[in-house]
Design brief:
38 strands, 4 domains, EC 2.3.2.13, 668 residues, Coagulation Factor XIII, Chain A, domain 2, Immunoglobulin-like, protein-glutamine gamma-glutamyltransferase, calcium, elongated, Ig-like_fold, alpha+beta, protein-glutamine gamma-glutamyltransferase activity
Length: 668
Amino acid sequence: RAEPALRNLGVRLPVDSSNSETSDFPEVEYFGLPGPRGFPPLTGFLDISGVDMVKNPDEKNKVEHHTALFQSDKLIVRRGQEFQVKITFNRAYKPAEDKFAVEFVIGSSPQYSKGTYIPVFPTKERQSSWEGRIVNTADNTITMGITPKVDCVVGKYHMYVAVLTPFGVRRTVRDDSRDLYILFNPWVKDDSVFLDDEQEREECVMNEVGIIYHGAYDDIAERDWNYGQFNYGVLDACLYIMDRSEMPITNRGDPIKVTRKASAMLNSRDDEGVLVGNWSGDYTYGVSPTSWTGSTEILLTYASSKMPVCYAQCWVYAAVFNTFLRCLGIPSRVITNYFSAHDNDGNLKMDIILDDNGRIDRNRTRDSIWNYHCWNECFMSRPDLPPGFGGWQIVDATPQETSDGMYRCGPASVNAIKHGHICFPFDAAFVFAEVNSDVVFYSRSKDGTMEPVKVNRTHVGRLVLTKTPGAMTRRDITDQYKFPEGTTEERTVLEKAEEYGCHRDKSNPEVADVDLTLPTLEISVGDDFEMNLEFVNRSDERRTVDMYISGTVVYYTGVTTSEFLFRDPTSKNCPFLTTESRYLKYLVEQANLHFIATGKIRETGQIVTAMKVVALRNPKLMVSATGKVNEEMVAKVQFTNPFSFSLENVYVRMEGPGLMAPKFKYYG
């Protein structure tokens, strides 16, 4: 009653942005002012004896709402779909005489006009935005069916039962057992996250484990991950993330706003978000990104400590974001893009500088191509875009560039990326560059002028992968991001992107008549190996090529740490033998070796180049478990030391989804 008066006085009410803060409703609200003897007692009218939330995992609500896997003793349902509660009165309910409502509130200042206070009525004559009906009556107990509005706020609600009498309203006292969670509903057609594919739904909402792809595009490696979206405390941690971002409660029913806010909150760059990024190789004050095995520990640690968790790289951001999305009911999957361009100036061009002899100039080559980069796709309609651009949307929590002043990315329509509509919100131009940039080799003369000598239009965005629904295999979805190289459709898309402000390199240098390739190598950490250069002379004349070959140790982001191999035209031995001792002391995590061969043809002056990333393979971990029903079980992990020396300070982490919480141990 005070709210309209305050607004008339010009008082600005605070925005409700906390799901954890609550507002208690009075147990009794009388109408009007008291008489000479005070307010009359309400004992002679209908009273509430008990409320059953029908919240057990094997009961109707959680089974039909696909929430039985949540490790929670609270009721968890999905919007746009009926759930039931049982209300017991002190006598039989008489529809002609008795009037009651079931009230739902969320946030610290619930308001009917904001959709944060919702009364639900049992009669057809009086309905609110949430539908209500009496499903069954037995003695003094009625079963009430309630259907939350299909676009209602997602979060944690509290439920009251209120009885109307001639003198006032009497309601149940606040009791935490009547808290309930309402989530997005990809099973209901009118929900904005509806996904009309049961196998995709099972994978992208219900599957608690997954595979994240890494390595190199021609030597793909797998990383198992426990998303654990149904684990105890994870749902509350996801709601805390939105509270911490101070996101208005009223925005939390819109998946576009939720995912955009979350893409900023999953990193800590500007908002004390969940994860601290670290690509330095020094993880003294936290956990190495490669050591994490699941999302649960990260989310629970953040929610309890209220501090960002150390440390993450792209696949950790994507994996934890995936847990957040699936937990709230937004279908999602982790994507890996091989040879992902980090283009911060929007020119769709990655520059590699060569000196006038054809040798790479590492001091002037600044652009980086990530061996792979992981982001997320989530499924939703896009009413803010023209028809046809809903469906899978890219969101990325790895802090690379700012968007509207914060480190975040998306949601960007995958279909918009494929068709060159890079003007569409949000951040479509940045994602377009990640999969479509050209690699341009420049020859820098002694006077500083630079001339393009080769353009590789197929290197970036070479392969886009995700996990196959319902199987532990990979699925190539490159064709969802781009048309085949060289096709009419691809040229049309690039022309359209240029109309929207993307600048491409238009140079078309003469193609050398000698082809150079570096072979695919499968090398384990500790192996000696040979590197061959394979030439094909497509001319009718003899060709002499002065070659440089450089081998460097790189992070997966393409950043160089050390050069372990260099050969110039005076080197006579080919293939080049590389022993373990040459590269082992320089290795960084994920053990990537980057080879680049460049040369100049003496007879024509043409430049030839080839690049290859080799991801060294770590020893394979073998996990075995033996046990009997109702007995403690022992899990054993084994691997073989590939080196001729003993290993020291070995750190082993292990968890079993639903079986064993994350454990770790140091071995001296």
